[in-house]
Fold this protein.
Amino acid sequence: MLLNKNVITVQHPESIHHTNGMIGSWTDWELTKNGILQAENIARNVRKEFQDIRFAIYSSPLKRARQTAEILGKELHCIPNLTDALKERSLGKAIGKSVRWLKENIENEEKTIYDKCFSDAESRFDVWNRLLPFYNEIMSNDNENIIIVSHGDSLSIFNMMWLGLDPEMLNDIDLSGVSGGVSFLYRKAFGKKIIKRLSDTSYALPF
């Protein structure tokens, strides 16, 4: 018999790169003041809804995600576990550059999950392979209640993985969210996996 699993994913809220035209990727942007408020609201709303539940928190180590996870951890009385598996997709030589620079200098158009916009970037399939050991670990460990704090593209890939879809399905469909979005995933003891809510931004609002 499998354990029930309650997994909450949080796409980090507003970061500096959302406001200045720069690329996120592996550049270590912090949350804006508004993003910090959004993270605090998410933490309070999650605590209010799940008052008696103890969570394990896993987070990308990039500042914007780490700050979000630390705010959640303070509210929920647990220390986040940082893992590179949850980092955003690396865009190689575009890291530290503007969105405009990327559009003007892109080397390859990404049509499939195997394509890379730059020779030293990650493909989406690379991110899938980076996430897979982490996914397998959390699905097999003893933690029944898990919060994952990560980034847009990485969580889109995680959603596909959760539903048991083949990675090549990402060539045709996607399950993407928005900054500050909170998703609720559930696995029943007999194995059925459900996405209850996808990228619910109401949690980033004051309650």
Remarks:
- The first helix runs from residue 33 to 49.
- Strands lie at 5-11, 56-59, 81-82, 145-150, 182-187, 193-200.
- The CA atoms of residues 58 and 125 lie 21 Å apart.
